From TrEMBL:
Keyword Protein transport found: no
SUPFAM superfamilies: CNF1/YfiH-like putative cysteine hydrolases
Family: Belongs to the purine nucleoside phosphorylase YfiH/LACC1 family.
Gene: pgeF
Protein name: Purine nucleoside phosphorylase
NCBIfam families named in the record: peptidoglycan editing factor PgeF
Length: 249
C-alpha cells in the first residue's frame, strides 16, 4: 500500500491505497496480491480485514468503524448513521455526518470519489462505473450531501485512479448512451475505437456543481501498482476512505 492521503478541509481526512504490500501487514496471495481491500472477490477474509484496518488507520479510525457498500452500478446513495459490520446493500455512494466513521469505496477500473464539506460536517464516497456516470451517481451524491447541510461551493473532492479513455474502448451503443448524458466522457481509444473517459466525466460533473476537485493516481489498466479488472479479470480492489473527525471541545 503506497498510501496517498490528505485533508478536504479541517476535520476531514482522506486516503487512497494501491495494491502494493505493506511491511507488517499480511499480503493477499495471487491473484489478489498484495493489498486487496474488497471482501467480495474470493480473497482470504482475514487478509482483507487486515488491509481494511490499515487503510482505516490512515484516516485515524479503528477498523470496526469502517463502513463499506455493495455497489450495483446505479445511483442510489446510502446514509450511514452508525458503524455496521456488513456492507450497505445496493448503493453506489455513501454519505454521513457522523464523526469517527470511515466510509470506503473500492474499485478496479471504475472511478472512486471522496468528498467533504468541513463547515457542514458532511462526507461521502462514490463508486462510478459507466452506468453510474450515465445515471448521474455523482449528482445524486451531491444532492444527498446538500440535504444534510452541505454547500456545493464548499465541497472539496478528490477523484482517484480509474481506467483512462485511451484504454477504455467500448461499443458504439455504450459510448452514445454515456456521452448523451456526460459529453466530457467522450474519448478515442488507443486502437481508434470509441472510448470513454469516466474520470473526466466525474470531474466535469463535480466542477460544474461548484465543487473544488483534485485528482490522485493514473490509469488502472496501465499501472501494475493498481488493480484492473479489465486487464486481469480475477483480481482485487484498491480503495479510498474519507472520515470526519470529532469537533474539538
Amino acid at each position: 500500500m503506497t498510501l496517498a492521503q490528505g485533508h478536504l478541509g479541517p476535520r476531514i481526512r482522506w486516503a487512497f491505497s494501491d495494491r502494493l504490500a505493506v511491511d507488517g501487514v499480511p499480503s493477499s496471495a495471487p491473484p489478489y496480491d498484495a493489498f486487496n481491500v474488497a471482501d467480495h472477490v474470493g480473497d482470504d477474509p482475514d487478509r482483507v480485514r487486515a488491509h481494511r484496518d490499515a487503510l482505516a488507520a490512515a484516516v485515524g479510525v479503528e477498523g470496526h468503524r469502517l463502513v463499506s457498500m455493495a455497489p450495483v452500478h446505479g445511483n442510489d446513495v446510502g446514509e450511514v448513521g452508525a458503524p455496521q459490520p456488513e456492507p450497505v446493500p445496493e448503493v453506489d455512494a455513501l454519505v454521513t455526518r457522523v464523526p469517527g466513521i470511515a466510509l470506503l469505496t473500492v474499485a478496479a477500473d471504475c472511478v472512486p470519489v471522496l468528498l467533504g464539506d468541513s463547515d457542514a460536517g458532511v462526507v461521502a464516497v462514490v463508486h462510478a462505473g459507466w452506468r453510474g456516470i450515465a445515471s448521474d451517481v455523482v449528482g445524486s451524491t451531491l444532492t444527498s450531501m446538500v440535504d444534510l447541510g452541505a454547500d456545493p461551493a464548499r465541497i472539496r473532492a478528490v477523484v482517484g485512479p480509474a481506467v483512462c479513455g485511451l484504454c477504455y474502448d467500448v461499443p458504439r451503443e455504450r459510448y452514445d448512451q454515456v456521452v448523451a448524458i456526460a459529453p466530457s466522457a467522450a474519448s478515442v481509444a488507443r486502437d481508434g475505437a470509441y472510448g470513454l473517459d469516466l474520470r473526466a466525466a466525474a470531474v466535469d460533473r463535480l466542477r460544474g456543481a461548484g465543487a473544488h476537485v483534485t485528482l490522485h493516481g493514473g490509469c488502472t489498466q496501465e499501472s501494475d501498482a493498481l488493480y484492473s479488472f479489465r486487464r486481469d479479470r480475477l483480481t482485487g480492489r484498491h480503495g479510498g476512505v474519507v472520515s470526519l473527525e470529532p469537533e474539538q471541545s
